[in-house]
Fold this protein.
Amino acid sequence: MMIVPCPWCGPRNVSEFRFAGETRVRPDPDTATPEQWRRYLYVHSNPAGWTRESWYHGAGCRRYFSVERHTTSHEIRTVGADQ
């Protein structure tokens, strides 16, 4: 069982959350090319190690937040509230 520490609700079982993807910078809609949009939407790095991710607490506060998580051990280092 994996425990995810929600910034508002505290530690909860991972089944209460939805993984929303790795945190990346969104291209500028006014200047981005179709290729930049394709890369943003479909190409993911999927590293073995520390990564920054977005999570959604659907069964609790219904807020998004960011998590720094090790992808092989599932250790969580930092949690931050997304604005």
